């Protein structure tokens, strides 16, 4: 039996490269501890944000899924400004600002057991509103994935209202 095996040049190069890298990294971290810790902290924050975003992604629906929910009695909530709302919104949507979302438990009491579809222009503001609504007991609150931009991209109907609505 052979106990000795010649090391190929590529595996020697890799193992030497790893050793040099770890030595250099240790030396670099000794010289620049704040930079190394800062980089590690940024990496951890990025990972946490990504995990959080993926775990909340269940709380969004496509425009087609939103139509199905609305056909079953879901309420659409539009977070955009009164002017944007007046220029066109999801049919039957109710406009609410951020302050009203914080008071949703009293303002939307009759919709407590129903689905709520929250939309803005792109869907980014709606995620925070859905989080607030869920904390107030609206377990079926979801975002419109892509916001009104996605709704319009699918050539779905919009209602226009003179002067905006509430």
Automatic annotation (TrEMBL):
InterPro entries: GlpE_sulfurtransferase (IPR050229), Rhodanese-like_dom (IPR001763), Rhodanese-like_dom_sf (IPR036873). Residues 70-160 form the Rhodanese domain. Pfam families: Rhodanese. CDD domains: RHOD. PANTHER family: FAD-DEPENDENT OXIDOREDUCTASE, NITRIC OXIDE REDUCTASE FLRD-NAD(+) REDUCTASE. This is Rhodanese-like domain protein. It comes from mine drainage metagenome.
């Amino acid at each position: 039996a052979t106990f000795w095996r010649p090391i190929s040049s590529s595996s020697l190069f890799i193992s030497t490269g790893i050793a040099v890298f770890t030595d250099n990294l240790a030396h670099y971290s000794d010289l620049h501890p704040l930079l190394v810790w800062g980089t590690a902290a940024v990496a951890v924050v990025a990972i946490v944000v990504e995990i959080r975003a993926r775990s909340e992604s269940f709380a969004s629906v496509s425009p087609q899924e939103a139509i199905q929910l609305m056909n079953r009695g879901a309420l659409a909530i539009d977070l955009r400004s009164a002017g944007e709302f007046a220029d066109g919104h999801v049919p039957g949507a109710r406009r609410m600002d951020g302050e009203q979302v914080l008071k949703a438990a009293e303002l939307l009491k009759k919709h407590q057991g129903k689905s709520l579809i929250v939309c803005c222009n792109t869907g980014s503001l709606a995620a925070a509103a859905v989080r607030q609504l869920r904390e107030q007991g609206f377990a079926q609150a979801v975002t419109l994935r892509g916001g009104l931009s996605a709704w319009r991209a699918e050539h779905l109907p919009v209602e226009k209202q003179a002067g905006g609505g509430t």
